[in-house]
Write a structure and sequence with these properties.
Blueprint (H helix, E strand, L loop, with lengths): L1 H25 L5 H14 L1 H13 L7 H29 L4 H15 L4 H18 L2 H27 L13
Helix pairs in contact: 1-2, 1-3, 1-4, 3-4, 3-7, 4-7, 5-6
């Protein structure tokens, strides 16, 4: 079980980390589109949860698995992929001299100004962004926050995979051909 969790989690983690890097480089300036692409990349990468649970069901349990063991394997794979996502983000932060929050804060303040907020609201928002930048500089704050971006998607995919694959007639194991 540990090998399946590690292998499929790392594959999913590599896909999501690379997808994040490509998304940052090519669509991050497009607001909502960047977020949609990011979450779609997570969903594609976390398809490895389904593949890994199915592999575990078919090879270890002879094509039959109950919901809770399937969920456990799925959450394990999602957890490993999430850790890879955090490592990928930290690598990006390091490569860009941790400048992400400066750019993000400037962009958020500009959006607030464009929305027609009063000068007092903008000053207050600017102070909140400065406080957030200080928090985000701490890796003990930043890393769990980054993991929390992918964790809900991983939990949902693990739940769906366990619910589907507990039925042995769903995606039945293919017999080996001689």
């Amino acid at each position: 079980m540990g090998r399946i969790i590690a292998v499929y989690g790392i594959i999913g983690g590599i896909v999501v980390a690379l997808g994040m890097q490509l998304s940052i480089r090519f669509v991050s300036d497009h607001g909502t589109l960047g977020m949609v692409v990011g979450y779609l990349t997570m969903l594609v990468a976390l398809s490895m949860v389904f593949v890994g649970v199915k592999r575990y069901r078919d090879t270890v349990h002879g094509g039959v698995i109950r919901f809770w063991p399937a969920l456990g394997v799925g959450l394990g794979i999602a957890g490993v992929a999430g850790l890879c996502y955090v490592i990928g983000w930290e690598a990006y932060m390091y490569a860009t001299d941790y400048g992400f929050m400066d750019v993000y804060a400037k962009q958020a303040i500009a959006e607030k100004m464009a929305s027609g907020a009063s000068a007092a609201e903008i000053v207050k928002f600017g102070a909140e962004m400065e406080a957030f930048k200080l928090q985000y500089a701490n890796p003990l704050f930043r890393m769990p926050m980054t993991f929390a971006e992918i964790a809900p998607v991983g939990v949902l995919v693990a739940l769906a995979s366990a619910a589907i694959l507990r039925n042995s007639r769903a995606f039945p194991a293919v017999a080996a051909r001689s």
